[in-house]
Specification:
It is built from eight helices and eight strands; from the N terminus they run H-H-H-H-H-H-E-E-E-E-E-H-E-E-E-H. The chain has 244 residues and is α+β, with helices and mostly antiparallel strands. The protein folds into two domains: 9-113, Butyryl-Coa Dehydrogenase, subunit A, domain 1 (Orthogonal Bundle); 118-240, Beta Barrel (Butyryl-CoA Dehydrogenase, subunit A, domain 2). Strands 1-4-5-8 form a four-stranded mixed β-sheet. The protein has a four-stranded antiparallel β-sheet with strand order 2-3-7-6, with no helix packed on it. Strand 2 (138-142) and strand 3 (145-156) form a beta hairpin. The radius of gyration is 18 Å and the shape is globular. The structure holds flavin-adenine dinucleotide. Residues 121-124, 129-131, 154-156, 209, 211 line the site of flavin-adenine dinucleotide (FAD). Residues 121-124, 129-131, 154-156, 209, 211 line the site of flavin-adenine dinucleotide.
Length: 244
């Protein structure tokens, strides 16, 4: 039996109760079929657990990061896999902390009520992992759109998400500039983007983790989907994940 802290006992009990409906057989069957735990994610969303960190004014529970950790810990303690949906908690932080009031009003209530999924996080590329500043995907401003070209890899849950938080280079690196400058965060509406410049290819992994390669070929993203200011994306991505 795993040892967990006794903080958030009430939350832990409720999450454990929900997880009891999804026993080992449920997860083993999904593993065999390499399938996404759609039913489990829906139940977790409907019960409000994935909106735990979204402020109450946007329909969430407004809980601190430690409560989010308790929820995820309890899922894993029950034998389930929170990796199928945990990103909804951390990717949302970039939008919450750095998005405009209009962007927050447009997306957060729907993310909180489960009608919109923000589960995809496009940062890693085939030639840039921890060295994020070396990423090669570009977003060039043309009129009222950014035109995105490049590739991401290990973009988990892209097939099961409506939105993606994307980090791309908007300013080429020039002399004296740090690699982490000139990067910007764009919110990609994948429902519109698929087959309009966005291609998603699943990667077969040894564990059942819905991860993908994502290709951008002149994908046009409206300028209003820029989060915060141009060039500050590296900082936004880091601080978005640290919400307490
Ligand atoms: C299951 C899974 C899901 C993922 N999901 C996503 C996702 O949804 N979105 C996304 O963007 N990415 C995702 N990733 C990618 C993940 O974030 C990267 O694997 C991570 O950024 C590391 O990059 P890398 O694998 O290229 O390793 P590298 O950057 O090549 O690093 C390999 C090792 O070398 C070490 N290292 C690197 N540079 C140095 C140095 N200068 N000095 C000393 N040590 C160094 C690192 O600490 C690490 O231990 C996922 C990965 C996995 C495995």
């Amino acid at each position: 039996m795993l040892e967990t802290s006794d903080a958030y006992d009430d939350i832990r009990d409720a999450v454990a109760k929900l997880c009891a409906n999804y026993p080992g057989e449920y997860w083993r069957k999904l593993d065999k079929e390499m399938a996404y735990p759609e039913e489990f994610v829906k139940a977790l969303t409907q019960a409000g657990w994935l909106a735990a960190l979204i402020p109450e004014e946007y329909g969430g529970a407004g809980l601190p990061l430690s409560a989010g950790a308790a929820i995820l810990e309890e899922i894993h303690k029950s034998g389930g896999n929170a990796g199928a949906c945990h990103a909804q908690m951390y990717t949302m932080g970039t939008l919450l902390r750095h998005g405009s009031p209009e962007q927050k009003q447009k997306y957060l209530p729907e993310i909180a009520n489960g009608s919109l999924r923000l589960q995809a996080f496009g940062v890693t590329e085939p030639t840039s992992g921890t060295d994020t500043g070396a990423l090669k995907t570009t977003a060039k401003l043309e009129g009222d759109h950014y035109v995105v070209n490049g590739q991401k890899i290990w973009t988990s849950r892209a097939e099961h998400s409506d939105l993606m938080v994307l980090l791309a280079r908007t300013t080429p690196i020039s002399e004296g500039m740090k690699k982490t400058q000139g990067l910007s965060v764009l919110l990609v509406d994948m429902r519109e983007a698929k087959d309009n410049g966005l291609t998603i290819r699943p990667i077969r992994t040894m564990m059942n983790h819905a991860t993908t390669e994502v290709f951008f070929d002149n994908l046009r993203i409206p300028v209003e989907n820029l989060i915060g200011e141009e060039g500050k994306g590296f900082r936004y991505i880091l601080s978005g994940m640290n919400s307490e």
